[in-house]
């Protein structure tokens, strides 16, 4: 009896890791070529960053309706449709005739991608149970970070030789390969009884997902931490290729190797949660992220690189804790809605924070951008601390 369970668990981990690689490679593919887009279409950093923010904003808007849809049609069909459609749209991006058309395609791609992160955590709980979800969520987020790194590096290294059109094509092919792995590996979810009044159930689930303060705290962490993280990386290409560092786009794209640190931290943070508890692990990870931001301030390339390594590791650890906390605390009848709400705030932070950070950088420079992102991270620490401490005190009593 145990062998099939272990086999299914491995298949689940492989499938969600591949889906994460595909989705996140495609979602952030334009990020390393933002300077080239700005030069091609005569844009400032804020205008160029829309190539990222439009997709993440559309994802944020679509994620709750798609999560509600998954309550009706099931999680697996939604995930399968998501990875296939997002890869197909990725193949269309390089042939977009204008920047406006590219932004429209990116918005559609964001909607398509929403199907995976919006329901993945709920699918994992249903497939593996609460006791097995932590390791699987870690594998999924590790796949997300690998995808983010692989997509950005593929685009960055291809841009010099192939231009941004060729760079986006390379990433689209990568996304298509990993989406096919998901299609063949993803096991069907356990059978469920058909829901009565599915629309009413979906709306009730949204209310339940918004009723628990501990869940609201995780949504705040997602919003603020993701906003800070994307803001730093949206401006990274401009800082690294500009004065005084003056790197080529291909060399500057090596900063995305920092995502390897995210893969390690997200996959291992479960041990810290087991030892210190979710609250201390979350606050510690956010503090590490803020320290990493501060390390990027000096005009010294080695120190800047260390800063990106530290902030990336800290961010993905914080994300893993908050995402797993959401999945564990969500009411049984609202797992999809809680997962969807977390994903909504996560990508709303990416869209708003990423654009706001690019505007701050364009008008005030790297120091002010760093100050703003540290302030967002401190606010996230305060929110989760205030909300979670009473729960810990009550549990102790």
From TrEMBL:
Which keywords, in A-to-Z order, does the entry hold? Cell membrane, Membrane, Transmembrane, Transmembrane helix, Transport
* Tagged with keyword NADP: no
Task: Provide the topology term for how it sits in the membrane.
Answer: Multi-pass membrane protein
Its domain of life?
Bacteria
Q: What is its main location?
A: membrane
One matching Pfam family is MFS_1
Spans through the membrane: 12-30, 50-70, 77-97, 103-125, 132-150, 162-186, 214-235, 247-267, 279-297, 303-322, 343-362, 368-388
Record SUPFAM superfamilies: MFS general substrate transporter
In which compartments does the protein localize? Cell membrane
Transmembrane helix is among the record's keywords? yes
**Domain Major facilitator superfamily (MFS) profile: where?**
1-393
Q: Which family does it belong to?
A: Belongs to the major facilitator superfamily.
Q: What is this protein called?
A: MFS transporter
């Amino acid at each position: 009896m145990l062998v099939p369970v272990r086999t299914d668990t491995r298949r689940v981990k492989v499938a969600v890791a591949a889906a994460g690689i595909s989705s996140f490679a495609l979602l952030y593919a334009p990020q390393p070529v933002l300077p080239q887009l700005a030069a091609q279409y005569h844009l400032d950093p804020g205008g160029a960053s829309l190539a990222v923010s439009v997709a993440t904003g559309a994802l944020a808007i679509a994620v709750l309706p798609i999560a509600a849809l998954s309550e009706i049609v099931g999680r697996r069909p939604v995930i399968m449709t998501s990875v296939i459609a997002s890869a197909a749209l990725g193949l269309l991006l390089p042939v977009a005739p204008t920047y406006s058309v590219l932004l429209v395609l990116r918005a559609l791609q964001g909607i398509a991608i929403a199907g995976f992160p919006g329901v993945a955590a709920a699918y994992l709980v249903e497939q593996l149970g609460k006791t097995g979800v932590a390791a699987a969520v870690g594998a999924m987020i590790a796949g997300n970070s690998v995808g983010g790194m692989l997509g950005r590096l593929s685009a960055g290294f291809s841009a010099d030789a192939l231009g941004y059109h060729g760079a986006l094509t390379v990433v689209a092919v990568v996304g298509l390969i990993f989406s096919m792995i998901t299609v063949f590996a993803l096991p069907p979810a356990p059978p469920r009884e058909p829901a009565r009044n599915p629309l009413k159930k979906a709306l009730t689930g949204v209310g339940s997902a918004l009723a628990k303060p501990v869940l609201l705290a995780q949504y705040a962490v997602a919003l603020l931490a993701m906003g800070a993280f994307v803001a730093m990386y949206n401006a990274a290409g401009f800082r690294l290729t500009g004065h005084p560092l003056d790197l080529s786009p291909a060399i500057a794209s090596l900063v995305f190797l920092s995502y390897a640190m995210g893969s390690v931290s997200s996959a291992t943070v479960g041990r810290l949660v087991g030892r210190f508890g979710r609250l201390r692990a979350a606050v510690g990870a956010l503090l590490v992220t803020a320290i990493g931001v501060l390390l990027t301030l000096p005009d010294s390339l080695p120190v800047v690189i260390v800063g990106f390594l530290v902030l990336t590791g800290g961010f993905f650890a914080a994300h893993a804790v908050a995402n797993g906390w959401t999945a564990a605390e969500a009411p049984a009848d609202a797992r999809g809605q809680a997962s969807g709400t977390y994903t909504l705030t996560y990508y709303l932070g990416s869209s708003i924070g990423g654009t706001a950070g690019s505007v701050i950088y364009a008008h005030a420079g790297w120091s002010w951008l760093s100050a703003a992102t540290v302030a967002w991270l401190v606010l996230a620490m305060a929110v989760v601390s205030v909300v979670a401490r009473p729960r810990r005190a009550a549990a102790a009593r």
